[in-house]
Fold this sequence. Notes:
By secondary structure, the protein is an alpha+beta fold. The chain has helices at 11-30, 51-65, 81-88, 92-100, 117-144; strands at residues 3-5, 37-40, 45-48, 70-72, 78-79, 107-109, 112-116. It has five helices and seven strands. It has a three-stranded antiparallel β-sheet. Helix 1 (11-30) packs antiparallel against helix 2 and helix 3 crosses helix 4.
Amino acid sequence: MSVSVSDKPSKNEQAIAMESYEPLLAVLEQLKEETPEIAIEETGRRIKIPLNTLKLLAKILKATSEGKPVNIIPVEMELTTQAAADYIGCSRPHIVKLLEEKKIPFIKIGRHRRVKMDDLVKYKKDLKEKQRKALIQMMRGDEELKLYDL
């Protein structure tokens, strides 16, 4: 299952999401149960929703309020090398190189490589952390050289 809202949210959708995001965060902080019950005012129905799903809804509202399209992809989903490249933000040949260097696990189906979404998420997270550490190291070097005092 993959849920995709590829269109940019309308101004009205952005405004509603912005209006709803903070109150939902406040409610989430107060919740104690793992499956709280919510009421749908328009229909009068009450439904249980897992707490993690409500937290995901908060993230979706935040992205929507910022005008960003939203995609929900199961972590077990297998992607093509082109889809993996699009997710990481690089070329398909670069992804293939990373796969062949065993930096990202993959499986082969015939001649085609498939990459699990959770492996891509882990790789991207690790890459961001390495970039963050390198940036901090560069800033420290600049401070030691007193380049900020110019």
